[in-house]
Amino acid sequence: MSISGNYFAGVDVGSLAAKSVILKDGEIFATGLVPSGVNSVESGLSALNLALETAGLKKEDLIYIVGTGYGRVSAPYANKAVTEITCHAKGTNYLHPTVRTIIDMGGQDCKAIRIDPDGSVVDFAMNDKCAAGTGRFLEVMAGVFKVKLEDLGSIALSATDTVPMSSTCTVFAESETISLVARGERPENILNGIHHSIANRIAGLFSRVGIESDVFFSGGVAKNSGMKTAIEQALKVNIVKPEIDPQLIGALGAAVIARNFARKEGLWA
Amino acid sequence: MAITAPFSYPESIKEKFIATPGLKFKDGTTVSSAEIWEFMTKEAPKRFPYAFDAGANNMGRFSDDVHFLSGIKRGYLTLTLKDRVMKEHAAGTPTVLVQGGQAMDAYYAAGGIPVRPGLVMQWARNMHEGLSLRQSETLGLNILESGRRKISIDACNQIAAHAAIDNKVVPIDLIAPFLCLRCSDMSFLVETHRNREHDIPRYLVDYPVDHENKPWAAEYIATELRELIAKIAALSGRTITDEVIFNEIKLENRGRRIATEIAELWWDAENPPTNSTDFFGIAFLANDFVGDPVAAVDLLEQSKIEIEERVRNNVKGFGVPDHAKRLYICGSCVGPNAHHAQTAGAIFVGRDDSWSCISVPVEEEGDPYLNIAKSMLAYPYEQRTEKRAEWTADQVKRSRADGVIFMYQWGCNYQSGVARMISDIVKEKAGVVTTFVEVGELGRSEATEQSTNRVEAFIEMV
Amino acid sequence: MGLKTLEKITAALESRPAELEQLRKQGKKIVGWLAYNIPEEIIYALGLIPIRIGQGGDGRLVEVGARHISTKNCVFVRQVLGQFAEKTDPYIKQLDLVAIDATCIQLYRLEELINFYFDYNTVVLGVPRNFATKEGHEYFRKEVEFFTKKLELFAGVSLEQSRLEEAIKIYDGIREAIKTLYRYQSLDNSLLSWRQVASVINAGYNLDRERYLELLQELIQEVEANLSEESGTREVEARIFLSGSLIPPGDTKLIDIIEQLGGRIVGDDLWSGLNFFLNLNIKEPTPYGVADAYIDRVPHGSLPYLDLKSDGRLANLKHQIKEFKADGVVYHTLRYCDAFTFKAGETKDVLGNIPFLEIHTEYSGSDFEAIRTRVEAFIEMIKSKKEIAELV
User: Fold this and answer.
1) How many other C-beta atoms can be found within 10 angstroms of the C-beta atom of residue C233?
2) In order of start, what are the domains of chain C with their CATH numbers?
3) How many Å apart are CA C392 and CA B333, to the nearest integer?
4) Chain A: nearest CA to C102, how far in angstroms?
5) Domain contains B393
6) Rg of chain A, C-alpha, whole Å
7) Helix (DSSP H) and strand (DSSP E) numbers for chain C
8) Distance CA B307, CA C315 (A)
9) Is B392 within the bounds of a domain?
10) Which of B98, B26, B103, B100 is nearest to B361 (CA)?
11) Which single residue of A45, B267, C33, C288 has CA 20 to 30 Å from C192?
C-alpha cells in the first residue's frame, strides 16, 4: 500500500503519561496515549506505536519526529528534542491562535507560559521542586481519600465549603490534609481547599509572567474540572475550551515543530 | 465538622464583673466595666463571631477562666483595637508598622500607633465583621497568599501583614520597624514595598549584631531613633521634647515592672494562679500595649491585684491540670496551642520572646534616645546565641520548668539557625529536656494537628 | 589550545595547602574569612594569611551541616557548617582564626555555630543595614577600627601605614586584573571563558596574593597575545548573564547545565563573582579609609535598600548586562536565601524586556532534570527571539 501525504510525529514522555500525535501535512491524523513506565524510551515508543497503529502507518513513513517532555533527553527514535514549554506553546497556537497565556499542569510540574501570535514563547515560569501544584500531588491526595484521580475535580466541585489550605509546600499541604481528615472535615471541602491552594500557587507563577487573554489550560491535570474552576477563580479569567484532549498538546506542538524542522532541513517542501 | 456552641461569658459573673474598675485610656476617657460587659457579651459576639469559636483549634481563643476578670478586659482591648486605631487614624494619628517583641516607647512618644505584623493581620481580618472562624481564616489566608504570590513562598507568614498594607486593607502611614536578630524577613519585606504602587514612607532602625563592648552601636541606634521620631512627629504634628519621651518611657517602664512582678508572683505560687492563655496575655500586654499604653498599664495593675489575691488564697487557675508539667516556650512569634497543651497535662510558664523586652526597663534620666538604644541592645533575646541561651536557662530554672519547647515559624531563618544550639545549651545548663518544632501556622488556626501532635508527644515524654 | 597560565594557577593551587602547612610551622597564622565586607587588605598588611572559605555543591556536606542547623537555613551555610564539622578540607583544618562579616545574618549565625560547636576562634565584623547613611558609615568605620585592633592583638603586631599601602596596591592590582579578564571572556575572539575566570577568582582566594597578582598579569598577557584576528566567528548563541545568590567554588550544577545546553555565560553580578571587585577605591590608607571604600561599593543584596530608583545594586546589574551584551538573565536563588529570593520578581520588573529566568535550587542533584528543562526552554526562547532558531 502506498502512502499519500507527509507525516510528522511528536512524542511527549511525561512522568505520568506518554503521548504521541501524528500530523498529516497540516492536520492531526492520529494520536496515542499510554501510562509512563519506568523506561522512558519504551514509554515513548509505545505511545508512538499506538498512534502509528491507529494511523495505519509504519515508523519509516514519518518524515520527522520531535521528542519532548522529560523523556526527550533519551529518545533515540526522535530526530530532535525540544522542551515541552516550547511544544505547549506551538501546540496551543496551532489549535487556538488567539491564546496568549497557557497554564500547563503535568505530573511533576506546572508551568505558566506567555506566547506571541506566532506561538513563540515570550516568557515562562515553573513551580519549584517543592511545590504542591502538580499532578503527582493530586495523585497522592486521591490516594489519601481513596478515590480515583479523575474523580477528584468533580468531588471538589460538589463541596459546600472551602477549607483554607496553605500553599507553602507539599509537606505542609499533606500534613494539613491529614490533620483535617482526622478532625472529620468533609473530604469534598478539603479537596476544594486543595484545589484552591494549588490555584494560588499557579497564580503566583503568573504574578511573574503576567496574564493576557485568551487563556488555555493544557496537560493531564487540565481534564480536572475542579482545577479548571479553581484556576479561573484565582486568575479571574475564563479558560478556552480545548478542541482536543489537553493532555496531547505537548505532543501536538512537537509534531508541529517536527514539520517546521523538516521544512528547514529540506525534507519537505 | 462538629459544631461547638460558641463561647460566652456566664451571666452569673456579671454582677461581680461590673463592680470592678473600668479601663482608663490615653485620650483621658474611661470605659466602665458595665460597658465592657455589654461589648463582650452582646456587641462583639455579633461583630467578631470567630473570636467566640469554642473549638480547641482556635489559637486566639479566649481564656475559659472566666473568673479571672482582667482576662475579659484583655479580650476587650484586643477586639476594640480596630475601632480605636481607625478612630485615631481618622483624627490624624499616624499608624506605623513595627517589629514585634521590641520596645514601643519611641513610637508612642512621637504620637504614632505602632502595630506589629500580628496585629496588622488581626486588624485586617476584623475589617470584615460577622465572620465565623472558618470565614475569618479564609480571609486571612487569601491575604497571605496574595503576599506570597507577589514575593515568595519562602517568606514567613508575616508577609500577610505586608500584603494587607499593600492592598490597602488597613491604613498604614509609615513602615518603620526596628531590625533585630529575632526576625529574618522584616528587612527584606520592608524593602519589597519600594516596588509597589502604594508607596508608603519607609524607614528601618538597624540593629547592630555582636554589639558587646561597642559603645558606637548604641550611638548608631540613637541617631536612627532621632530620625524615626522626627519622621513620626512630622506625621503626627507633635513637638517631641526629651520630656515627652521620658513620660512615655516612665509609663511603659511601669508596665514592664508590673509584668515582671506578676511573673515573680506567678512563678513562686504553689499552684499556677492562671492558665497559660492568661499568663501569656499579661506578657503580651506589657510588650505590645495593644494600641494604648495607658489602658494596658491600667489593666496590668488590675491583673496583678487579682493574681495576688489568687496566690494568697492558693487558687489554681481554671483549666490548669493537676500536677501540670511546666513548659517554657522559646523561639519566635509562634507558640503551641495552650488548650491542647492543657488537655495533655501541661502549663506554659514562660516565653523568651515576650519576656526579653519586658525584662529591660529603659533608663529614665539622661538622653532618652541613647537610653532606648541601650535597652534595645540589652534585650537578652538579642544577644549572641550563647548568652541568650544562658539567660533562657536562668528563666527556665526561675520558672521551675520541666521542659523547653523551641518553636519557630517556617521561613524564620534566624531562629531556625539557632534552634538546635539553644536547645543544647539550655538542656545542659538547666538540666531539663528540650525539643525544637518547626511550624507553618503563624496567624492561623486551621490544621495545626501536626504541631499539636509533636507538642503532646513531648509533654508525654516530660 | 589551552591557556598555559591557567595550568600554572591550577598547579599553584594544588601545592598551596602544603605550602600553608610550612608557613604555619614558621609561625605564620591563617585567617579564614567569609562574605563580602571583610577588608582583606588589613589582614594581609598585618602579615596574616587571608583565605576565603566556603564551598558549595556537595549534598553530603550539607547533610553533615544540617545536624547542627535547621534544614530551613540557606544551603550554603549548611554546607560550610558541614565543612567545619568534618575538618577535612585542607584549608578549613589549618585556620587559626575565622573572620565573618555580618552582611548576611545567616552567615553571622554560622559564625556563632562554628565558634560554639567546633571551637574555632572567631571574630565578627558588624555591617550596617543602613549602609548608605552617615550614621551607617560612622558605625562601620568604628567596626573596621575595632576589627583591626582585634587582628593586631591576634597577630601581635601593629598595623603600619606603609604595609597597608603596599597591601592596597596589590589588591587594587588584583581588582583591575579581574575586571580586565571579565572583559576578555566576554569577547568573541578570546580563548578565555567565563567559567575559567570564575575558577581563577576562586583560586585567588587561596593563593598568596602577590604571587596571584603576577599570575593574573601573566594570564592577561597570554590572553591578549592569543586574541584571534576575526571576531564573530562563533555560531549564534544565547549569551547568559548570571545574577542572584552566590555561586561558590564547587557549585557547578547550573553552570554545567547552561553550558551543556549550548548557552554561553558572559557575565555576572554575583557577590561571589565580579561584584566583589568593582568600585572599591580606598582613598586613604587607614582603617577608616578602608571602611568607607568597602561600604561604598556595589551593595550586597543582603543589605536592604528602601529606594528603588537609587539602588546601586540594580544600577550595576543593568550596567553589566549591557556591558556584556547579554541576551538573557538567569537569576539564581538558593533555597532559604531570602535576600535574593524576595528580590527576584522585582529584579525582573526592573530589567524590563530582557528574558529572565529564575532558578530556585539547592545543592542536591534531585532537581537537575527540572533545571535542565527550564534552562533549555529559556535558551530556545532566546534563540527564537534572536530569530535564528531553525525550529520556528
Assistant:
1) 9
2) 11-164 (3.40.50.11890)
3) 53
4) 29
5) no
6) 19
7) 15, 8
8) 59
9) no
10) B103
11) C33
Take residue A8 and report the three cell numbers written for it: 510528522
Q: Is residue B153 part of a domain?
A: yes
Q: Give, for B161, the enclosing helix (H) or strand (E).
A: helix B159-166
Q: H/E element holding B327? A: strand B325-331
Closest CA to A24 of A46, A9, A45, A44: A9
Helix ranges (H only) for B269-384 are 276-288, 293-312, 338-343, 352-358, 368-378
- In three-state secondary structure terms, B328 is strand
Secondary structure (DSSP) of C227-271: --S--S-SPP-EEEEEEES---TT--HHHHHHHHTTEEEEEE--T
Per the CB < 8 A criterion, the answer to whether C250 and C55 are in contact is: yes
Q: How many beta carbons lie within 10 A of that of residue B190, not counting itself?
A: 22
- Domains of chain A (ranges, CATH numbers): 1-96+247-269 (3.30.420.40), 97-242 (3.30.420.40)
Find out whether B190 and B202 touch, Cβ atoms under 8 Å: yes
Return the CATH number at B232: 3.40.50.11890
Residues of C (311-370) whose Cβ lies below 8 Å from B: 335-336, 338-339, 341-346, 349-350
**Structurally, how many domains does chain B consist of?**
1
Q: How far apart are CA B192 and CA B186, in angstroms?
A: 10
Instruction: Determine the Cα–Cα distance for residues A40 and A73; give it in Å rounded to an integer.
Output: 9
d(CA C81, CA C107): 10
Decide if B272 is inside a domain: no
Q: Do β-strands B95-97 and B174-175 pair in parallel, antiparallel, or remain unpaired?
A: parallel
- Letter for the amino acid at B323? H
Helix or strand (DSSP H, E) at A216: strand A215-218
Give the DSSP H/E element, type plus range, for residue B268: helix B242-268
The C-alpha atoms of residue B166 and residue C122 are separated, in whole angstroms, by 42
Which of helix, strand or coil describes residue C31? strand
- Torsion angle of alpha carbons A156, A162, A164, A170, nearest 10°? 0
Give me the count of residues in chain A: 269
Tell me the pLDDT of chain B (462 aa) as tens digits: 445 688 999 999 999 999 999 999 999 999 999 999 999 999 999 999 999 999 888 888 899 999 999 999 999 999 999 999 999 999 999 999 999 888 899 999 999 999 999 999 999 999 999 999 989 998 998 999 899 888 988 899 999 999 999 999 999 999 999 999 999 999 999 999 999 888 999 999 999 999 999 999 999 999 999 999 999 999 999 999 999 999 999 999 999 999 999 999 999 999 999 999 999 999 999 998 999 999 999 999 999 999 999 999 999 999 999 999 999 999 988 888 898 899 999 999 999 988 999 999 999 999 999 999 999 999 999 999 999 999 999 999 999 999 999 999 888 999 999 999 999 999 999 999 999 888 877 777 766 777 787 888 888 888
Distance from CA of B232 to the nearest CA of A (A): 33
Q: Which residues of A touch B449 (CB under 8 A)?
A: 175, 178-179, 182-183
- Residue A236 CB neighbours (<10 A): 8
Residue B38: which domain range? 11-240
- Grid cell 467566640 in the structure block, residue: B52
In the three-class reduction of DSSP (H, G, I as helix; E, B as strand; rest coil), residue A198 is classed as: helix
Cα separation of B369 and B362, whole Å? Answer: 10
Give the Cα separation of B134 and B140 in Å (integer). Answer: 10
The answer to whether B364 contacts chain C (CB < 8 Å) is: no
Chain C: residue nearest B181 by CA? C105
Contact status of C260 with chain A (Cβ, < 8 Å): no
Nearest to A166 among B134, B440, B449 (CB): B440
Neighbouring residues of B276: CB distance < 8 A, sequence distance ≥ 6: B338, B341, B342, B347, B348
Cα-based distances in Å from C123 to A84, B212, B298, C300: 51, 12, 46, 20
Q: Do B440 and A172 touch (CB under 8 A)?
A: yes
